[in-house]
Amino acid sequence: MPSFLMIQWGIIGFFVIIHFLIGFLRGTSKSTYFTIVSLIMTVVTLWIVSKLSFNMLLTSGLFSTSLLDLVNSLTGGAIPADVITYLNEPEILGLAIAIADLVLRIAAYFILYPLIKFSLTITIFKPIWKLGIKKSILKKQNEQARIKHEEQENQNRKFVPSKRLNKNILSRLFGGAVGSLRGLVVAFIFLVPLLVLASFASEVTSGLNIEQTQEGQVLSSQQDLAITIPSEIEEILRNINEMNEGGLSAIVKDITIQEKSLDRYIFDTVFTTDIVVEETSTSINFGNELEQIMGIATIIAENGYLEDDFQIENISTDDIANA
Questions:
Q1: Which of 307, 295, 94, 86 is CA-nearest to residue 204?
Q2: Is the pLDDT at 184 greater than 90, yes or no?
């Protein structure tokens, strides 16, 4: 199995190299401008994605009933009557909307995010560059060139204004460096959901030790309980821990916003939705939900509930503390 850590740095390297080459061709001015635009568009598009929701449509009882009837008619009555009855219940409808919002935002994050960002850049910021900033820089550049031309002793050659910005090797290298920064940001945004999910999975094994024995791989908990696991799972767990300790997560964890690491803050911003049930609004943070599920998995693993010889009849009042 390929190392998750190497795959992560490979993705980052790919984005950095591509944007370095783009920045090298653009030069300092253009590369700096579009890097700033990219950062602004990243914030704007993440905000747009975080606001996408079926909530405004499906919390209307009349609309939800009509939609269910439409879907049922198109599928030839495939939806059972009792399911339709359940879905018309406000609480069940709220849960359905939450799940639909999660699917919608996952798709929007990986599909609509680059499309929205690209379209806004092309329609708004590229014309600003061409018609405003570039013309201003080019005018200043030609004015300086004209003064130098007039100061020369040979005036036989007519001065011809340039239609392109001057780009020497230093300008191109600095543009490439700025482009690399843009590529790093793009790669980080792309990897944020994977980084956060990997950190959740890593927490499951944080209290466990993966050991190699003659019988195979085992997970040993802090209570000296051993659980035999397949070698494939053991390798995945090692890869996840390695990626969290030596990957991008280890770098950005010290960058905090509202007492959260940068990747977790972005994840929570995008994947938090508000569900309205009978005029009562409830905020659902999918990151917190996943974290709690992983916490339950950690307790189950650490306390030997996955052991081969574990019997449910062995549960007693001593296990209340683990509930």
A1: 295
A2: yes
Range of the domain at 127: 4-304
Three-state SS sequence of 20-62: HHHHHHHHHHHHHHHHHHHHHHHHHHHHHHHHCCCHHHHCCHH
Return the closest-CA partner of residue 281 out of 8, 131, 46, 56: 56
- The Cα–Cα gap between 135 and 177 comes to 24
3-state secondary structure of 3: coil
Distance between CA atoms of residues 64 and 180, nearest Å: 47
**Sign of the C-alpha dihedral computed for residues 55, 57, 62 and 66 taken in this order:** negative
Q: What is the pLDDT of residue 317?
A: 58
Q: How confident is the model at residue 143 (pLDDT cuts 50, 70, 90)?
A: confident
| 311 falls within a domain | no
The residues, any chain, with a CB within 8 Å of residue 176's CB and separated by 6 or more, are 20, 21, 23, 24, 31
Structure tokens of 95? 């849960």
Going by C-beta distance under 8 Å and a sequence separation of 6 or more, which residues neighbour residue 18? 183
Q: What are phi and psi of 143, to 5 degrees?
A: -65, -45
Q: Could you give the number of structural domains in the chain? A: 1
pLDDT in tens, 229-252: 556 666 777 777 788 777 787 888
- The gap between the terminal CA atoms of the chain, to the nearest Å, is 36
Which pLDDT value is given to residue 212? Answer: 43
Q: Is residue 318 part of a domain?
A: no
> Is residue 320 in a domain?
no
pTM over 0.85: no
Give Cβ neighbours of residue 23 (< 8 Å, ≥ 6 apart).
Answer: 31, 35, 175, 176, 177, 178, 179, 180, 182
- Please tell me the distance from the alpha carbon of residue 52 to that of residue 132, in angstroms, as a whole number: 33
Where residue 176 falls (left for φ over 0; alpha for ψ -120 to 50; beta otherwise) is alpha
State the helix-helix crossing angle for 169-206 and 262-270, rounded to 10 degrees: 80
Q: Please report whether residue 322 resides in a domain.
A: no
| Length in residues, the chain | 323
- pLDDT (0 to 100) of residue 179: 94
Q: Are 140 and 162 in contact (CB under 8 A)?
A: no
